[in-house]
């Protein structure tokens, strides 16, 4: 008969780690499969009440600021107009628009500028990224601390104009 | 004279598992903090425009309808279809943005049945940066015809 080895107090207490490692790996796999890497997104609010929802007030038919975006046939920006003034289509046109809006409203957050409305007239084929850049330029600017300085809240689009 | 070393191999090789368990727990902790069980209606096929002002909202909108307008693209990102589609809409059918009206009317009926004012519902437009703006305007018009009036356009934070 085999003799059992004598146990002494110096022997290490051995824990079986296998079930715990199994469980932790299961957990890791579960969390890894659930993980969705999403870039942070933000929204710009657009004020578009249904046509005829509210009776137009006298003097409110013409928007305060009108921005017109003209498109090339390939969807790129041909020109950006603030009122009747052509600001061009250079890469800096949106920061120029941002400066012009600031000049129009004077001081950001001023109660007088809170009712100011911007209407954006868009060519049908224009790529949407130019519209977002225009909305952003009208909405405000980030200060040095990265906080939003709001210029204009009321932004709306013209109805779609389908090309003939 | 040098003593000969005992050449008998040990009866069992003991691996130190502590560093591995440490790393595994670090990974679990990381995944636990980053996980979100929130149902996201965003579609990764839509390449949103970038903008510096696009920051995640501090207060979440209570009632939101997400409309993903984008293109079918291949692995390289090239468009497979020149016309955009509405993704995650209408139970997986291929829906063109200009056909959205009946679905939005259905959505409006559902909100009315739930006694929610349509003015409190935000239509979140996640439109691809290369979609023709006129199509987004058409979608807005269809939503307006269905009774919705609050819209938000999405962009990705440009850092």
Write the layout of secondary structure elements.
The complex is a heterodimer of chains A (164) and B (159).
Chain A: H1 18-34, E1 41-47, E2 65-71, E3 77-82, E4 85-88, H2 93-105, E5 117-122, H3 128-139, E6 140-142, E7 148-150, E8 154-157
Parallel strand pairs in A: 2-5, 5-8
Antiparallel strand pairs in A: 2-3, 3-4, 6-7
Helix pairs in contact in A: 2-3
Chain B: H1 18-34, E1 50-51, E2 63-70, E3 85-87, H2 101-113, E4 121-127, H3 133-146, E5 150-157
Parallel strand pairs in B: 1-5, 2-4, 4-5
Antiparallel strand pairs in B: 2-3
Describe this structure in words.
The complex is a heterodimer of chains A (164) and B (159). Chain A contains 3 helices and 8 strands. By secondary structure, chain A is an alpha/beta fold. Chain A has a domain of 93 residues: Nucleotidyltransferase, domain 5. In chain A, strands 4-3-2-5-8 form a 5-stranded mixed beta sheet, with helices on one face. A two-stranded antiparallel sheet of chain A has the order 6-7. In chain A, strand 2 and strand 3 form a beta hairpin. Chain B has a domain of 100 residues: Nucleotidyltransferase, domain 5, CATH 3.30.420. Helices cover 28% and strands 18% of the residues of chain B. Chain B is built from 3 helices and 5 strands, in the order αβββαβαβ. Chain B has a 5-stranded mixed beta sheet, with helices on one face. In chain B, helix 3 links the parallel strand 4 and strand 5. In chain B, helix 2 runs parallel beside helix 3. The mean pLDDT of chain B is 83. Classes of the chains: A alpha/beta (164), B alpha/beta (159).
